[in-house]
Design brief:
Elements: H1 2-17, H2 20-24, E1 29-30, E2 34-35, H3 36-56, H4 63-72, H5 80-83, H6 87-105, H7 111-118, H8 134-155, H9 158-170
Antiparallel strand pairs: 1-2
Helix pairs in contact: 1-3, 1-4, 3-4, 3-8, 4-7, 4-8, 7-8
The structure holds fe (ii) ion (FE2) (2 copies).
One fe (ii) ion is lined by residues 73-74, 94, 120-121.
Length: 176
């Protein structure tokens, strides 16, 4: 399964991963603990894994669209300090810019892959429509899961959680 995951991502995404823009994403921090491209790779791995599980349930997923969409979903965020006035603007506009960057890497970008990228921020911004395809839904969920996991890990590491559990437990009075 792991081998299959690697093969699928390389089959449909190696030209994206090798591109200058994707490689530059390894130099831009993201969610404080990641880089943009490490995050995009995680989203891609998780999206393909979800697709494989659904496939076993006979729910057919287009893996090419999932890989291309997941790898490209945050390309528009690169250079964020120069492009956007604030976080709100970045959240709302980077999917649109990601589509533009994806079209440079995939000249025949199909409409569903475009939707995956354009709608991945739903429901975080009012400008974004909800995902309507299975593939767009998968990448949107994988992106949320990855982002939340990355952000939570900053504030709630294993030691912090252990101490928190102990403090809460100590402060609860258990009836005799
Ligand atoms: Fe994003
Ligand atoms: Fe993302």
């Amino acid at each position: 399964m792991k081998q299959d995951l690697t093969e699928t991502i390389l089959k449909y995404g190696s030209h994206i991963i090798a591109s200058e823009i994707f490689q530059s994403g390894y130099r831009q921090p993201h969610h404080l603990v990641m880089t943009v491209s490490d995050h995009s790779m995680d989203v891609t791995i998780m999206s393909v894994r979800m697709s494989q599980i659904l496939d076993r349930l006979h729910i057919r997923i287009n893996q090419k669209q999932v890989v291309e969409g997941a790898l490209c979903h945050d390309l528009g965020i690169l250079g964020r300090d120069q492009k956007f006035q604030n976080n709100r603007e970045c959240c709302a506009l980077h999917p649109v810019l990601s589509v533009e960057e994806a079209k440079k890497l995939i000249p025949d970008l199909d409409s569903n892959t475009e939707q995956i990228i354009r709608r991945h921020m739903w429901p975080a911004t009012a400008l974004t429509l909800p995902p309507k395809s299975k593939e767009a839904l998968i990448v949107m969920l994988a992106d949320k899961y990855s982002a939340i996991r990355e952000l939570v890990s900053i504030f709630i590491g294993p030691e912090f959680k252990k101490n928190l559990r102990r403090r809460i437990r100590q402060n609860v009075s258990v009836p005799a």
